[in-house]
Amino acid sequence: DVKVTQSSRYLVKRTGEKVFLECVQDMDHENMFWYRQDPGLGLRLIYFSYDVKMKEKGDIPEGYSVSREKKERFSLILESASTNQTSMYLCASSFARGQYFGPGTRLTVL
Amino acid sequence: SQQGEEDPQALSIQEGENATMNCSYKTSINNLQWYRQNSGRGLVHLILIRSNEREKHSGRLRVTLDTSKKSSSLLITASRAADTASYFCATDGNQGGKLIFGQGTELSVKP
Fold first, then answer.
1. Is there a smaller number of Cβ atoms within 10 Å at the N or the C end of chain A?
2. Do A33 and B98 count as a contact with CB atoms less than 8 A apart?
3. SS3 for B82?
4. CA distance, residue A14 to nearest chain B CA (Å)
5. What residue of A is the nearest CA neighbor of B94?
6. What separation, in Å, do the N-terminal and C-terminal C-alpha atoms of chain B show?
7. Which chain A residues are Cβ-neighbours of B42 within 8 angstroms?
8. Taking the CB of residue B31, how many other CB atoms lie within 10 A of it?
């Protein structure tokens, strides 16, 4: 079974803090993705990566950066968290044309 | 950008009934996928239908695809309370596995 894990299920941070969300997959997948999910807006792609040290902007990259130093790990970074980044963050990986999702991190920025 | 639009946004049925959800999209696709999400959890891949396929079955799931109308439907037969979840369609336009998700249909199955 493919396993995609995320470092935290719930996270509370303060405005201006630097936030790291970690995602690890154990199936040697090349493609990894970060989404945020908000009521009424569905899933929106923030960043994705096709290979180590490679990254591509998604639809809403502003305020975020990513890091992929190893194939199995894809990190999402909020350089200076703001209240409008309060959301559910979902990581996914894929090999063929389906995506496998982690359980999600619900981030609250106060 | 979200190109998938799902209909209805919410659906409430009794156990044993069939549930039908629809998805429309705007651009050409390689395949279309359906996912399920239980409340507060990640998405789970249910089924993929390729652009040259018209219908696909998996257990109690039946998916149809009409590329001329740019639409798909997901039918869940003999629904169970455990089917209660949100269901999303996602289109793959051959951009290296990048998917565009619809906003989902919230299904409630009452026992």
1. N
2. yes
3. helix
4. 22
5. A97
6. 37
7. 4, 90, 92, 101-104
8. 20
**Before B8, cis peptide (omega within 30)?**
yes
Q: Give the residue among A11, A48, A51, A54 at the shortest CA–CA distance from A28.
A: A51
Sign for the CA dihedral angle at A19, A4, B46, B38 comes to: negative
Read off the pLDDT of residues B30-69 as tens digits, 9 standing for 90 and up: 999 999 999 888 999 999 999 999 999 999 999 999 999 9
- Is the separation of the CB atoms in A91 and A23 below 8 Å? yes
Residue A85, SS3? Answer: helix
Contact B47, B56 (CB under 8 A): yes
- The 3-class SS string of chain B reads CCCCEEECCEEEEECCCCEEEEEECCCCCCEEEEEEECCCCCEEEEEEEECCCCEEEECCEEEEEECCCCEEEEEECCCCHHHCEEEEEEEECCCCCCEEECCCEEEEEEC
- Name the token pair of A82: 């703001």
For residue A80, the 8-state DSSP code is S
pLDDT for position B5: 78
> What tokens appear for B105 in the block?
């249909």
Q: C-alpha dihedral over A59, B91, B62, A1, to 10 degrees? A: -70
**φ, ψ of residue B82 in degrees (nearest 5):** -70, -10
* Rounded mean pLDDT for each run of 10 residues along chain A, 110 residues in total: 88 97 94 93 92 92 96 97 97 85 96
CA pair distance A101, A104, nearest whole angstrom: 8
